[in-house]
Amino acid sequence: MELRGPVVAVEEPRTVSTRNGSRDVAEVTMRPGRGEEPPVTVSLWGSWAETAESLVTGMTVLVTEPSQEEFRGETRYATTAESYVVIEPEFMVNVTDIREWVQCSRQYYLSKFTGASLSYPLVKGSLVHEVFGDLLRGRDLETSVEERVADAGLKLGLLDRDRTAVVEDVRSNAQAIERWLQQGTLTEDDEWRSELTLISETFGIKGRADAVRRGGPVELKTGKNTDAEPRFKDKVQATCYALLLGEHGQTPETGTLLYTKNAVLDRTEETGDLSPAKEFSISSGLLQFVVRARNELVAMEFDSSVPTGYESNAICEYCFEQDTCMVVSGRLDQESKAGAVGTALPAAEREYFDRLYRAAEAERREIHREYAKLWTQSAAERAADDKALLDLQPQERSQRANGTWELRAENDDTTAVSKIREGETVLASDGHPTRGDTELARVVRLRTSTDGTTEIVVHADEPIELRRLDVYPSDYGINGLLTAVHDSVLKGAQRRRDLLFGRRDPTFGETDATFIDNNAAQNRAVELAVTAEDCALIHGPPGTGKTYTLAQTVRALCERGERVLLSAFTNRAVDNALEQLREQGFTDFVRIGTEHGVSDSMQDARLDYRGDPEERAATLRNAPVVAGTAATCGSPVLKECAFDVAIVDEAGQLTEPDTLAAINLADRFVLVGDHEQLPPVVRDDDSALQTSLFERLIDRYPDAAVTLDKQYRMAQRIQYFSSQTFYDGQLRPASPAVAGQQLSELPTVSHEALPSALQDAVAFVDPDGTATGNVNRTEAERVAEIVDAYRSAGVPADDIGVIAPFRAQVAEITRRVSPDITVDTVDRFQGSDRSVIIVSFVATGTLDSPIFEDRRRVNVALTRAKKALCLVGDERALRSDPFYERMLEWAQS
DNA sequence: CCTCTGCCCAGAGGA
């Protein structure tokens, strides 16, 4: 039994005398049943009274195993010896965060923006952990060490480490583990499981245990510890996993910590029986302690306040982060137990940091809310929301060369739609993502064959029965945002900050060179980029040759001996830019990205991290051009690199921190984009992250910007509405040929064969359908008929694209057209084009979905078409809004 | 009432 719901009132804790002596108690009023039931009073006894001090009205509180008694006709509840009190159980805290918080609340805070740096102890720690996993999966030690060290080649090279020495170092740690595993500890009832993903819906904690043996957590530490007891924070970590294992039906009484360096000392110093393994007993007091620590952390995050360090008992003099801690306190004018050094940054910088910090944390809370839906939603609800694939039939399981598993399954449900795509990380389970046997897995194949069955292949650490896949809502990227803001504000050069905070206009040098002789705006763009002493902004409306201009810019900069970072929001845009460079005869670049993210044609340029350290690092360090998405620019590897100029494409779609991650790596920068197309996508509706740096700077420094005004894509008739509505009529066809292009120019097309309704370059069709939710069946059928009409008139399938605002409608249309027709959402169509574009608006009666509010989305949809555009929708709905009415008048004119 | 893309996930250590 449990009580879960919002807090209505909290009383101050008081001390009362009971039969067993004096005890603290605090009374909390809350509404159980997630707020559906009338308020009840719960007495929080003993140390839970401390948690009451963190409770605020409006928070959700969860009390497990309460006692219940009737008192004067009123039901009263109280905590029992078995109870836990959990604040905001939907806020998912990582086990490592609790470990850090217990060590020092301020260290937890600092690690949000300093955590992901490249250091040898960390790389080595990861290597030893990987080898440990391999050993548990039965892999040979020598092979594992060699392979894992080879995989880390680039990182080791950037750290100037010698391969042989690292192999020796990792091997000696791993041998300690192997000897311990062989020392009779491996009995028949020894059941091992490595790398177990644990998610607790009761405690709001998630994490990954290194290993579980006989139901108890085993944590590996690469350091040494010759004390009798494990370090407290290590015990806290293991206890967290014990708590989570408890929810999965196991009640471990002991935890094990493996300090591998103990055994290394043992061997080299002949100190006798100094075992690497230290066991400790997991008491209920310790279990409750970790929950209280989590509660404190969550209470702090609830109002986005900043920890001072006084929340924990750490001694600052012993802390490795003391200097960083004091600098951050000094620069941001924060109260801190460690004290502060340096002078505070200008108020503008501090306000900016604060604003983006809060925005990033709000985003994290939204992700956590999504996370909680893993268990608050039923399987059917999740499937309906496209977030899960259910009822998969498990097929064969095979162990891969590195000891991990390839799991296969089939799905017969031909109507199943989901957001899950190849290359993504998902929760793979045997039935339920938090209650069943679950593995974090990577989707390597998701293909639907012509008979409608879907083949699913994932890679995971353990051979579970693959019956269900769930979207994994990761908050992984949030700390990346915070790191970028931190690096920019606290570590950025004065000149750069003056620019970002509007205190200094960008300046430009001079050049006599001509770069592009047939397009003045493009030439001006390259000129601005090449002469920029701070930044240049290139505004590229649809079809204006952004990619060509960008490639010319890269080449011009390289010819001047500059080192260039080439970045973009999507992998596709990065690869497009590189293709364009190749077409222009430039091939001296290195592509950074995952095998899955990089297009097939660019795999040969992709930097493999595996190999000889020195050679790998030299390849990266010596490349005149390095290319990768903005997200990778914040990675530890790229943070080791420096550039003269960063060029960022699709900058209008990047949040400000994401853009900062890229430009932090360079002295100067060039942003390329269009703020009249799609903005950054964020979960929180009123987020400060919704405005891109590109948009902010183009408003602030119009003189540093140039707009490419000639478009090479659309017929005059098609581009007119977009040009008038979004570009002040400044967007013009690049040539008469572009302006006057017609569908009949395609060799196979007969204009006469088109129905009269489709003969105009811009057409409107009202199929008179009815929308149910995000689907309009009649309209989907009509769209399929229109596709057929174009096909019958001779338009090749790959010249036709269909766009709909909702994924559900996309699926509805996809089922009705042949598979070689591209059907997609607006967002996924940005950046590409087709001769013929058909847009399905879905809505009938009114336009009440917020998706119609952002006009920029319409701009993207309409400007994908080159020769013919067909709008399909409900005339009444579209006329209900002045913007769409104008669009309709243009289409019908 | 809704769209989307990136990140391998989370954690790897020091005293």
TrEMBL record:
Domain (+)RNA virus helicase C-terminal intervals: 515-893
InterPro entries hit by this protein: (+)RNA_virus_helicase_core_dom, Coronavir_polyprotein_1ab, DNA2/NAM7-like_C, DNA2/NAM7_AAA_11, DNA_replication_fac_Dna2_N, NA-bd_OB-fold, P-loop_NTPase, PDDEXK-like_dom_sf
Keyword check for Iron-sulfur: yes
Region (Disordered): 387-409
Necessary cofactors: [4Fe-4S] cluster
Domain of life: Archaea
Keyword field contains Iron: yes
UniProt GO MF annotations: 4 iron, 4 sulfur cluster binding; 5'-3' DNA helicase activity; ATP binding; DNA binding; hydrolase activity; metal ion binding; nuclease activity
Keywords associated with the record: 4Fe-4S, ATP-binding, DNA damage, DNA repair, DNA replication, DNA-binding, Helicase, Hydrolase, Iron, Iron-sulfur, Metal-binding, Multifunctional enzyme, Nuclease, Nucleotide-binding
Listed EC numbers: 3.6.4.12
GO BP, sorted A to Z: DNA repair; DNA replication
Enzyme class name: hydrolase
CDD domains in alphabetical order: SF1_C_Upf1
SUPFAM superfamilies, per the entry: Nucleic acid-binding proteins, P-loop containing nucleoside triphosphate hydrolases
Catalytic activity: ATP + H2O = ADP + phosphate + H(+)
PANTHER family: DNA-BINDING PROTEIN SMUBP-2, DNA2/NAM7 HELICASE FAMILY MEMBER
Family: Belongs to the DNA2/NAM7 helicase family.
Name the record gives this protein: DNA helicase
Originating species: Halocatena pleomorpha
